[in-house]
Automatic annotation (TrEMBL):
It comes from Emericellopsis atlantica. It comes from the Eukaryota. The keyword ATP-binding applies. Pfam families: tRNA-synt_2. One of its GO terms (cellular component) is cytosol. This is Aminoacyl-transfer RNA synthetases class-II family profile domain-containing protein. One of its GO terms (biological process) is aspartyl-tRNA aminoacylation. One of its GO terms (molecular function) is ATP binding. InterPro entries: Aa-tRNA-synt_II (IPR004364), aa-tRNA-synth_II (IPR006195), aa-tRNA-synth_II/BPL/LPL (IPR045864), Asp-tRNA_synthase_2 (IPR004523), NA-bd_OB-fold (IPR012340). Residues 168-465 form the Aminoacyl-transfer RNA synthetases class-II family profile domain. Keywords: Aminoacyl-tRNA synthetase, ATP-binding, Cytoplasm, Ligase, Nucleotide-binding.
Amino acid sequence: MSGKHERIHEEMDECERFEIERPQAEEAAKTVAQSAQSTRGLDLRTIAEVVNMSEGTEVTFYATIQTLRSVSPTLDVLHFRDRTGSIHGMLSRTALPMTKSLRLSPETFVQVYGTLQKPLPRVSKFGLEVAIYSILPLHEIYDEPEYSLAEMTARILDLRLPSNKSLFRIRAMVLRNFRQVLEDREFIEIHTPKLQPAATEISAETFEVDYYGRPASLAHNSQLANQLAIESGFARVYEAGPVFGAKVSKTQGTLAESINVEIGMTFGRSYHDLIQIVDDMLKSVFAAKQAIPELRVVRERWPSKDIVWLEETPIITVKEALHMLQIDGQNIAKEHSALRDDVRLGALVKDKYMTDYFILDELSTNKRPISVELAEGRHWTDLFSIFLRGQSICTGGQWVPSKTELWDMMKQTQATEDDNGNCPSGLDLSTPPHGGASICLEHFLEVLLELDGVTCASLFHSDSG
């Protein structure tokens, strides 16, 4: 109870302070508004442009105060940032009488006017800094105390950091490269329903919903819809969209909602045609990632090593992988259990082939229990997995080609006769061999950039925690 009373008193003190300081705040706000009117028409620059200007140049820019430190009663050192970069500024409160009535704080959005100057070597290790002539908050200086969702507020403040701005620029680059490679190979982007009949998600851990009195679920993947699109004559399709999984985890290793890049296509020879396309798609991202300037900013917060990859990606069969693990002393009595030791297998491949990136092939249903594939909510006959830094980043293969075979697989998961009636009749139609692959965008970024967790790559994440 004492803690509760203490919090109430603090809130009352804050309200009293607000009422006392309201006249000063309103007067300062009027001054700011008048000053802002007088600065309209100035040549506003981004910080990226400012840092490339010469010493003595007068500049005006909008920025957020990242940090503010008083080095004396009359001198403040500020660190500004915007979406393009950051710069230091020196604020003399004696030279700017108006600033005495302004209360500046971190995360305040301001308009800054000043001159570029060289900092003292012992003061700053950066390039030019701004000698501030004018700094104007671009919102009301005081706001009434209000309650907010602490976690959401913390995430918003976190997203303001340059590291997160750069991370989501890289995320956009990844999707852009995926799309470019696929569209160059005549894939069509489609968008499929995320509300699906419950029976299409065989034993996958899905969110169940009531659809006008009928059972349904949020899509765990878009495989079935992509398969039906191929049955309809779309030979090559892809989708980048949300998928949902209800798996409960005590860690932050899973997301309730994530973005998946799902690919579907017919084969000319075998599903190795699909492997080649996915391989090209991933390599295009590796090459672009190494050259993108945002990588340096991301690494300041999440240190990572450059990816080691080969022009010709090693394709290792299950037999070869099990042999490598056996030589390493692993127990391979159960093949599917041994192959779940992804990190160790990745280390062995790195030692042998000198690469962080490889493909594990021939994961057919007679080599892994069918329940493994069904637990993932997918219906394959031949499988492959693609690994990066010892973690699986993509799974794909040839899809079950007919309604009859799909029903045989469903029966192994104790599906009911009613479920059989929900199998799409389109699967009865004749079509060439076809299959697909899936990449979880957030997990891919987690591995690619060696982030602290998969939630770092999601703007506002939802997980089981």
